[in-house]
Amino acid sequence: MEFAEGVPCWVDVMLPDVEGGKRFYGELFGWTFDEGAGEGYGNYVQASLGGEPVAALAPKRDGRMPTAWTVYLAAPDAAALAGRIGRAGGQMIMDPMPVGPFGTMGLAADPEGAVFGLWQAGTHQGFGRQREPGSFCWTELYARDKDAVDPFYEGVFGYGGQDVGDLEEDFRIWSPAGATTGPESAIGGRALMGDDFPVEMPPHFLNYFVVTDCDAAVATARRLGGRVRDEPVDTPYGRISVLVDNQGAAFAVLQEPDQA
């Protein structure tokens, strides 16, 4: 697959126990795992589904690092994109750096501090499968100040934005630059963190994975030592639930309407 600038192209999770993560996600999503990229690449372990790459697990090298999933946005020119991020009020946590022949990666934060990655493809393009059971399908930014983040993302990446929420929910979807703006082309969205979110929770991205049965996935996650942050609920886009794995990393699962 080739990914236009700003389109989610990869996800990974930083965990204190990668072997424990392999057991959890292997059973939950049916992933298999390679032997790891070795110490020179941070012992990065790639997850596959049907022989195609879908995600990766990485060991935390520092206990102060968050146990969390990170979404990577495609960057045909990561250095140029990093410059635009800084000029727009964001910051680079890690400047773009080559990762052997695989590509170039960077880590950035938006004006509110929500972290996302940049990926300039080399031999590793990104997802080999997506938007099918066991793979990534969507990312959402949970922000507190839309006036700070909407212009940032739409300016840096050229996203076309469209408000689709109602009076009770302020939600905006983003489509890639040059695409017709709307649900059919949307690659992510922005939600606002209301009073139901703890005040100490920082702005963040939440990544979604497709499952064939949301309730069964929730039951499996519980059995494997995870917990449920938001119980399953039906939406116009499918049945969703927000989960936390057995080590504390949050993610969401989506059962698409035609699978209900």
UniProtKB/TrEMBL annotation:
Transmembrane segments: none annotated. Keywords: Hydrolase. Residues 7-121, 135-260 form the VOC domain. The keyword Coiled coil does not apply. It comes from the Bacteria. This is Hydrolase. One of its GO terms (molecular function) is hydrolase activity. It comes from Streptomyces lasiicapitis.
